[in-house]
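User: For my dataset I need records formatted as: sequence, then structure tokens, nothing else. Please produce one.
Assistant:
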Amino acid sequence: MAEPMLRADVLALLSNCPVCGSAKADFTRWGTEEKSARVRFECSAVFSTFGDAEIEVSNRDQCPAPSRVAASALEREFSRGAA
């Protein structure tokens, strides 16, 4: 019977940021049975999970893409109003 997939396994499979598509910069696994993991992407986003308790995947450092999109939208609104 196959071993169940761990959250760390899912992070290991990511090759691109799930938010903006930037390439994976690095991946690290550690701990008992390597259940802890961290993946960092070129955009600076970091996702991780920790340990034996199989803690949920967390977003340690956010992808800046949504902020850039929001800033562009605000700038467009400003440009329309200033014209």
